[in-house]
Amino acid sequence: MRQKDQRELNLGTGAKGEAPSAAAQATEARAAKACLERPAVAGPSMEAVVERENLKRALAQVKRNKGAAGIDGMSVDELPAYLKEHWPTIRAQLLEGTYKPKPVRRVEIPKVSGGTRPLGIPTGLDRFIQQAVMQVLQADWDGTFSETSFGFRPGRSAHQAVERAQAYIASGHAIVADIDLEKFFDRVNHDILMGLVAKRVADKRILKFIRGCLTAGVLEGGLVSPTEEGTPQGGPLSPLLSNLMLDVLDKELEKRGHYFVRYADDCNVYVRSHRAGERVLASIETFLAKRLKLKVNKTKSAVAKPSVRKFLGFSFTGGKEPRRRIAPQALTRFKARVRELTRRTRGQSLAQIVKELSVYLIGWRGYFGFCQTPSVLRALDEWTRRRLRAIAWKQWKRGYARFAELRRRGVGRDLAAQTAGSPHGPWRLANSPALTIALPTAYFSSLGLRSVADLRHA
Q1: Residues of the chain with pLDDT under 70
Q2: Residues 127, 212: Cα–Cα separation, whole Å
């Protein structure tokens, strides 16, 4: 397998058997000479980026992530064949510091809170190189980041961030200063960011590549627009660069002795009083504006009890022992998605609907099952089954067919007749004794419906 990977991807250094072109060999020779003449420096180097094992890990990750094609239309599946032919030349360009990233392709994706979020999709080749650079930089930087920063970091998760916030609340810090940065990824100042990178990276080739990614431009509507600020979401480097930028905020909060949790650009500071929270919010707003040229979104930031704010989809109950609960906004989104998947006009069989619905329920349960309010999960299960019973009732159409289905499924004659002749609509009858008997929980389990309340069936 190892030999196959090396043969197919051609990620080597021009060794025997790879047969690079004469031009590529000459370019690599110049790059090798330049490397020998360059004085050794501390910190990450481009040589580490183009090291074979690092490249293989990067390619495997890009293939796992899949993703849309960039402006060149090349899919991730086409990337290995392209690298097999062109990698020696590209590698030489990276070592010489002459490689130029291409503009990103602008796409809009829906935000869970409404509206859209702009993404910048790099080409497959640029994603691969960004991933290789990110791996080297992350290995060097991650250990220096704050203990209470959880986003986009190996071995850390949103659940850990929520748990840390819960511990602060339980310790008596029962007021949160919820800081929301206004369009953070679109507003990052390039010069400030590159200054932070330069403090950790001496290799000018890496600095030039990162600057090139930031300023490559955006293709939208057939035109390439320059990017004078921001770090486009969509490339592998963006999350790491955002953590580097906001590590300045983390260190300031640590210096001031605050209890805080940050996940990407979501930052919550936990204090003991509302007045203290207002002071923190005002001072951090000033600090961000002066030090990082970032703006706090005043309409989305607030000082309040954690029970009325949301953090990564969760909020907390009050009292001395706060429990994690699902934020109301997340419950609203859940119901909206289930309604969409269980529309009675979809024209699909109940089994098909259950199959598609279960894919969503499994993913949702994997994240929100972390809550500590099982009664809410049980209620969602009951509500979902009621939606499905309403579909079945609609599909059974009218009168005799409904009566026959109820009788076939064990409902008594009188109850079946009464229900089949009812003037009420599907939603109301979905909660009736007859349909509960005819379509019990076990029936939906037999169709493969996944539960959000029962771990055994999640």
Answers
A1: 1-42, 111-115, 220-226, 228-229, 455-458
A2: 13
Q: How far is CA 41 from the centre of its chain?
A: 35
65, exposed or middle or buried, with CB in 10 Å at 0-12, 13-18, 19+? exposed
Q: Please tell me what DSSP assigns to residue 333.
A: H
pLDDT of amino acid 234: 81
CB atoms inside a 10 Å sphere around CB 179: 25
* DSSP symbols for 209-242: HHHHHHHS-EEETTEEEP--S---BTBTHHHHHH
Residue 188 tokens read as 């990052």
Query: With contact defined as beta carbons under 8 Å apart, do 216 and 121 qualify?
Result: no
Output the CA–CA distances (angstroms, integers) from residue 9 to 16, 48, 55, 102, in the order listed: 15, 18, 10, 21
Do residues 104 and 218 make contact, with C-beta atoms less than 8 angstroms apart? yes
**Terminal alpha carbon distance of the chain:** 36
pTM of the entire predicted model: 0.84
Q: How far is CA 154 from the centre of its chain?
A: 14
Tell me: the pLDDT tens digits for 32-44? 444 444 443 468 9
